[in-house]
Design brief:
Blueprint: H1 3-18, H2 22-37, E1 50-58, E2 62-69, E3 75-81, H3 89-103, E4 115-118, E5 124-129, E6 133-134, H4 135-138, H5 146-165, E7 168-169, E8 178-180, E9 188-190, E10 197-198, H6 219-222, H7 229-243, H8 250-259, H9 271-279
Antiparallel strand pairs: 1-2, 2-3, 3-5, 4-5, 6-8, 7-10, 8-9
Bound molecules: adenosine-5'-diphosphate and magnesium ion (MG).
Amino acid sequence: MNEDKIARHFRALTNALHESAPDVRDRVRDALDRQLAAPGLATAFIANSFSTEATLHAGGRYLVQRLRHRDLATAHVMKTVQLSCRDDGISAALLLREAEMAMRVQNPYVVPIQTVLRLDDGRPAMIMPDRGLPLATALPSLKMTSGFLRCFAAALLEGLAGIHAQGIVHCDIAPDNLLLRNGDPANLGICDFGIALDAGERHADHNLARAGRASYAAPEQLRGEALDARADLHAAGKVIERLLPGVTDKGMQDLCESLTQERREERLATASEALRHLGRLPSP
Ligand SMILES: Nc1ncnc2c1ncn2[C@@H]1O[C@H](COP(=O)(O)OP(=O)(O)O)[C@@H](O)[C@H]1O
Ligand SMILES: [Mg+2]
């Protein structure tokens, strides 16, 4: 069918729908959506409510996709188990554990889990709001200033204070797990509770081999020891340190140093203490 013909039919359909009852419009839209999403495949939608827009990340174990809610038009992100791991009970259990950990935290700087559901093929999936690009991706286009740095540090420490208040250590604070909506540091969203622990636990207690990334994780974490909030403060200091080059801010440099001490006894002890320290810094 050529484009003119499609346009004529579409106009006629639109006119007819304008005069029809809302439920008819909804049913027609549903049928059109299904045909466009996957001709001949009736189950192209997730929970009959979300369409898939893009794959954001396909790691070894997990698949992360951007979704659109069909009725609300809102943007969401789904994290599920890779198809290749569909029958692997450990992957499914780890995803559910991650969702449970994240759901304990309610903080404006932590990405909320909106729901957990089962896909038609049985894989568990968690749904979150789309919170923008990870710092790792946004970094090259960000104009780094001392104002940005201080705002980012405050949001990160506030988020950590919220996580630690639930007795959780995130254990994977790194630029790809810190999302920024519109590159705005005040819109920070901490995500990925994949290797989070309850304070006092070691990763080996959960058979979690991956203990964090060498460039950010605290020495005690890399040694596989029992962890507390100070492990996250170390990683936060390392992330902030990455943003420092090009910015002259002695106060922030000193704060980073206090956060990234090798021995945890010598670090600032809590996120709240670090926040107070940040609040008292003289103007750069
Ligand atoms: N809520 C979200 N909003 C926007 N992007 C997200 C969201 N959650 C995850 N992502 C993207 O997907 C990537 C992988 O998600 P993550 O939970 O960190 O998985 P993994 O455990 O494989 O590292 C993130 O680095 C980010 O780019
Ligand atoms: Mg991650």
